[in-house]
Amino acid sequence: MNARRKGYASQGRLGVLALFAIAAYLLLGLRAAQLQAFDNAALRQRAERQHATNLDVEAVRGEIYDRNGVLLAQSATVYSLAASPARIEDATRASSELALVLGSTPQKIRRALRSDKSFVWLERWITDAEASQVRALELPGIELHPERKRFYPSRQLAAAYLGFAGRDRHGLSGIELAFERRLRGQDRTLSARRDARGRRLIALEDVAAAPDPAGGRRLDLTLDAKLQFAAENALARGLERTGAIRASLLALDPRSGDLLAIAQAPGFDPNQFWSAPAAAHKLWPLVDTFEPGSTLKPFTIAIALDAAVVQSGEMFDCENGSWRLGGRRIRDWKAYGLLPLHDVIRFSSNIGAAKIVGRVPATQLVDGLRRFGFGERTGSGFPGESAGILRDLSDRQLVERANLAFGQGLTVTSLQLASAAAALANDGRRVRPRLARSGNADTPLPTSEPAISAASARRMRAMMRTVVESGTGSRAALPRHSVAGKTGTAQKVEHGRYSEDRFVASFLGMLPAGAPELVVVVVVDEAEQGRHTGGAAAAPIFREFAGFAVQHLGIAPE
Question: In the CATH scheme, what is the homologous superfamily, with its name and number, of domain 54-220?
Answer without folding.
Answer: Penicillin-binding protein 2a (Domain 2) (3.90.1310.10)
